[in-house]
Amino acid sequence: MINMTSLADKGLRISKNAFFNFMISKASGIMKKPVKVGLLLTTAYEKLTNSNSSESGFSQIKEIGLRLVRLVKAYYKGTYRDIDTKTLLLGVAVLLYVATPLDLVPDFIPIIGFADDLSLMAWFITAFQEEMQKFQVWEQGSVAVGHS
Known about the structure:
Organism: Rufibacter sediminis
Helix content: over 70%
Radius of gyration: 15 Å
Strand content: under 5%
Mean pLDDT: 80
Subcellular location: Endomembrane system
Order of helices and strands: HHHHHHH
Structural class: mainly alpha
Largest sheet: none
Domain DUF1232: 88-123
Keywords: Membrane, Transmembrane, Transmembrane helix
Shape: globular
Number of strands: 0
Main location: membrane
């Protein structure tokens, strides 16, 4: 079982390092280019869905990561705007970090290589839990009325 608190703590440390700050600046540029956001969402989605792990904590983080992908997609489609711009920027930076093959621990090292990605996701989930829950409620309501 994955300990969300320790993962979030590690993710907080990652969120303060120079590489993640670089990802934030890259995310800022990408957010102005919807085509690049689309490519990022596709890459992040593929990476999240191709990660094989039967750990329950991983599947929870993976589901929330996929929700983050859907949130950013809904924002760019114009169907969901109830999110702070800084939160959206950090969410895009997290997805960029997850999608980028260069990070602190290379992803070709099984499980360990994906651990820093998971840690950063856990930090984002913990820090922006309210925003993610608000989107989940909106998303469930949209699906219920057929406006996804």
